[in-house]
Amino acid sequence: MKEGISLTTLFKALVLFTILFAAFLSLAIIYNKAYKLKNEVLTIIEKYEGITSTSLGIINNYLYLNGYSAMGSCEVGEYGSTDLTNTNLELVNSSNKRYYYCLSQKCTTGRCVVENNNKIYFKFKIFFGFNLPYFEDLLTFNVSGETKKIRFFDLDQRL
After folding, report:
1. Going by C-beta distance under 8 Å and a sequence separation of 6 or more, which residues neighbour residue 25?
2. What residues does each domain of the chain span?
């Protein structure tokens, strides 16, 4: 009965627990960074009252300077950014292309026309990946959020 659990088995369990704990901790840290980036981008959109070339330039610079490099798939009908060095957004036609982030807009009245009480809100989606050395990207997750309702006053503001 003395050799019921050997030292080798106990050591294997300890190593497995350490690896799982480190993976969970790194995933939590990466998610926290993506969540902070998402919140800051939503604040920029709200500050500039929508998507303009100025707000897109600030968003791209913010993501680029913070070392953001994760890419993922956007849904058809959203707008995606394939390059953080310019302000061009691309309408997503198929879900097999990779983007840095995704943007879409919704109107409160269903149609995006300039009216007295028409408001819009923007949905922003950013990606973060979980990878290990020698295994490349194991998993890709996304973090999404919406802005507060913004007064829709300019037709050039539409995506």
Report:
1. none
2. 7-157
Q: What are 124's two structure tokens?
A: 């922003």
For CA atoms 58, 62, 64, 68, the dihedral sign is: negative
Extract the tokens encoding 78: 């959203």
Query: Residue written as tokens 């973060």?
Result: 128
**Would you call 59 exposed, middle or buried from its count of C-beta atoms within 10 A (0-12, 13-18, 19+)?**
buried
Query: From the CA atom positions of the chain, what is the Rg in Å?
Result: 21
Average pLDDT over residues 97-102: 92
User: For residue 155, what pLDDT is reported?
Assistant: 46
How many Å apart are CA 2 and CA 121, to the nearest integer? 67
Two tokens at 11? 């050591």
Predicted structure pTM score? 0.80
pLDDT in tens, 17-64: 998 898 889 888 989 999 999 999 999 998 988 888 888 999 999 999
CB 85 within 8 A of CB 104: no
